[in-house]
Amino acid sequence: MANLRDIRNRIESIKNTQQITRAMKMVAAAKLRKAQDRIIETRPYASKMKEVVARLVRNSSEEDVLLRVPESKDNVLLIVVGSDRGLCGGFNNNLFKVVEKTVENEYSEYQKSGNLSLICIGRQAVKYFGKRNYNVIAEYPGFWDDITFNKATDIMKTVIADFKSGDFDEVKLAYNEFKSVIAQNRLVETVLPIDPESLTEEEEDSSATEYIFEPDVESILKKLLPLHLNLQLWKAILESNAAEQGARMTAMDNATENAQEMKEDLQLEYNRARQSAITTEISEIISGAQALEEA
Fold first, then answer.
1. Could you write out the three-class secondary structure of the chain?
2. Is 88 tagged catalytic?
3. Top-confidence residue, 286 or 233
4. Fewest Cβ atoms nearer than 10 Å: which of 158, 176, 223, 260?
């Protein structure tokens, strides 16, 4: 049995750890509220943008390059949205496993031939895929220190330019979608080429309404398609941010509860050890007194 000093030191250490996990849980809860507010504000705008683009695509007589499916799929780009920090349970690893499973099932030959490229957002994604056999062409560690729309547009502008120039024939986006504090949806979505059918999924039935587009449908569509893609990446970033804070809050809550259980178990062990030590001392005192009386 461990001595009393060792048990006391372990109890103090667990108390200190518990204070840290409790504080991290409170910080994550505060960040989660802000992240949820940003998502709530963004979702209606993104949904309406999708509806407008769908209407324009349906009324357009020309096919934009961002909508055109290449004759052959030779090069694929995968954008992975991870986090900068850990201590958020399986938030990163679960997503990375889904990405690896997708690559194994759909793009194993591309990876072997070097035709699969990755853009990693977040320090954890950079570390994970950088140590493995993946062609990482762009890294964004520290991305979450200051989340701005301009950062998302800068990434997407480069991706759009590479797609238009033919460097990539398909672009996919992998991220955690915020579902609840304790659950996230791990999604791998096709970003480019834009699938017209995916645009009409959320469109309301408004066939009876007619619109006049000025100057013309093609000009407006040419402006809105890049904006739609920017917004798609921005929405994924906001979803991932909220999912990360929810996962961290849950992980720190579990860690705090586990620390409490460990502390209670150690306190019980300490009380038993102390009781045993007191009993031993009393027995020694009684034995000594009896020996003196007999002498």
1. CCCHHHHHHHHHHHHHHHHHHHHHHHHHHHHHHHHHHHHHHHHHHHHHHHHHHHHHHHHCCCCCCCCCCCCCCCCEEEEEECCCCCCCCCHHHHHHHHHHHHHHHHCHHHHHHCCEEEEEECHHHHHHHHCCCCEEEEEECCHHHCCCHHHHHHHHHHHHHHHHCCCCCEEEEEEEEEEECCEEEEEEEEEECCCHHHHCCCCCCCCCCCCCCCCCHHHHHHHHHHHHHHHHHHHHHHHHHHHHHHHHHHHHHHHHHHHHHHHHHHHHHHHHHHHHHHHHHHHHHHHHHHHHHHC
2. yes
3. 233
4. 223
**Statement: residue 46 has pLDDT above 70:** yes
Q: Judge whether 276 lies within some domain.
A: no
Q: Domain of 152?
A: 31-198+210-250
Q: How many domains are contained in the chain?
A: 1
Q: Which amino acid is at 161?
A: A
Q: Domain for residue 19, yes or no?
A: no
Given a cut of 70, whether residue 91 has pLDDT beyond it is yes
Res 1 pLDDT > 60: no
Q: Out of 11, 52, 53, 88, which one is annotated catalytic?
A: 88
CA–CA separation, 139 and 81 (whole Å)? 11
Mean pLDDT for the chain? 88
Conformational region of residue 166, where left means phi above 0, alpha means psi within -120 to 50, and beta covers everything else: left
The CATH number of residue 125's host domain is 3.40.1380.10
* CA–CA separation, 66 and 167 (whole Å): 13
